[in-house]
Design a protein that fits this description.
mainly alpha; Cortactin-Actin_Reg; single chain; phosphoprotein; Cortactin-binding protein 2, 5 prime; 63 residues; Cortactin-binding_p2_N
C-alpha cells in the first residue's frame, strides 16, 4: 500500500495536515472500481485475498 504523504512528483512536500486529505483523494482517483480493467480487478482481488489470509493467520496465532 502507498504511504501517506508519498508523492510521485519531485519537489512536492506535504505537511501532516495535507497527508490524510491528499492520500484519500489520490486513492479515490486511483481506485475508481467502475473503471478498473479486468487485470486490475484480478490484482485487487488477489491483494484482498492475501489480506484475509494474513488476518486469519494472526487470529490463529493469538488463540
Amino acid at each position: 500500500m502507498a504511504t501517506a504523504g508519498a508523492s510521485c512528483e519531485p519537489g512536492v512536500s506535504r505537511g501532516p495536515e495535507d497527508a490524510a486529505g491528499g492520500a484519500a483523494e489520490a486513492a479515490k482517483k486511483e481506485f475508481d472500481v467502475d473503471t478498473l480493467s479486468k487485470s486490475e480487478l484480478r490484482m485487487l482481488l488477489s491483494v484482498m485475498e492475501g489480506e484475509l489470509e494474513a488476518r486469519d493467520l494472526v487470529i490463529e496465532a493469538l488463540r
